[in-house]
What does this fold into?
Amino acid sequence: MSADKHLQSWQERFEMAEAMQPLLGKLYRNQGVEVVVYGKPLLNASTIEIIKAHRLVRRHVGEKLRLRESFPFVQALSKLAVKQCKVDIGKLAVNYWRDHTDVSEIENYMAKELADAIDHADDVAPRDVVLYGFGRIGRLLARLLIERTGRSNKLRLRAIVLRGGKKGDLEKRASLLRRDSVHGPFNGSVEVDEENNAIIANGTYIQVIYANSPDEVDYTKYDISDALVVDNTGIWKDEGGLGLHLKSPGASKVLLTAPAKGAIKNIVYGVNEGDITPEDIIVSAASCTTNAITPVLKAVNDKYGIENGHVETIHSYTNDQNLIDNYHTADRRGRSAPLNMVITETGAAKAVAKALPVLAGKLTGNAIRVPTPNVSMAIISMNLNAETSKDELNEYLKDTALQSPLQNQIDYTDSTEIVSSDLVGSRYAGVIDSQATIAEGKRAILYVWYDNEFGYSCQVVGVMQTMLGLTTLSLPA
It folds into this structure.
């Protein structure tokens, strides 16, 4: 192909992606339809991200999907009365072009494949969400909730609750939402309503409430009712402490973004969210590390069986550590986080058993905090019940990441050049680094990357949706 043809091909793809964007936006805002390509979300995606999503189709089916081949499916989708579902146009297009050579039957094909979602009764009322705390996870949850703003959105961020309230606090909170040193600028506009003590982000009106205790707030004063309160402070971790939220009028359920103590269910979305019942009013989304390793451990255990193992977490530093040496109640965490590797404990390995009881008592774990601000790695060393090899294990995990029910939790890379900063913004719970896999006989070691902030926050949103009964129909099945 000549240089001009390469440029012409790129121009065609770019223009097709640009033409897709308004259709994708209207489908979500007006009909609650989220479009994906083999699981890769296109909601609010840039033209480049749309092009990349199409290129990744080769990983799934061995051949690329051209935008000119998928664009007619987006057009057809926009003409159908489809509501409140997730539609994978990548799978639809690939399946169609295997048996067809022209576009004449696409609309009929789409109507048949999406019949379950056409004129789907939209009788689920939107639910209110309150973020109690607005730190690293709180602000990323806000970004994820705001990106879904629209008339059809069922998960509505209504308020954030903070301690303090000093002069200038509101603008500083808004500024932290606008700009992030790790995840970059907020995708949109953020305004401050000083008079009413609120932040307005992409049209989402977020009431800012100041309180020193979970039971001090009357949410009904702000027209908030039956709300899910997401506690991301990490201060209260047992039923007694988290139960204080339920004493506040307008709050009906609580989700903790940290491992819980006692009998509270620890949920890893994609693994055991089916354990959540309508009667569960306090639930934990476990930890970032537990979310990263549990789906992978489940996949391995399902095929090979795990006799025992050890998880070593190489974890980026967090706000719980000191920038420079200073007093800290925990061992070693008082030493400068940006200057040291710091050995510390983690309960992630034991917490796996709460989500995956079959592994109870089989895992040990430890952690090393390292001088990076985000993205961590779990090294999972296992003794298996069946023999395998590096190639066999990698092939199985690749198929799991692409085709299984865990495809939204597990990603897979065969890059020989990937490093931690490449994974910033990953929406997966964990990403298997296949080049580092070690397997021989019944012994296996896996290296799993994870964005301990953003990837975990995506998992939390999944738990939120499950708690509120807002599960989405995914098509094709």
Q: What stands out?
A: DSSP finds 13 helices and 20 strands in the chain.
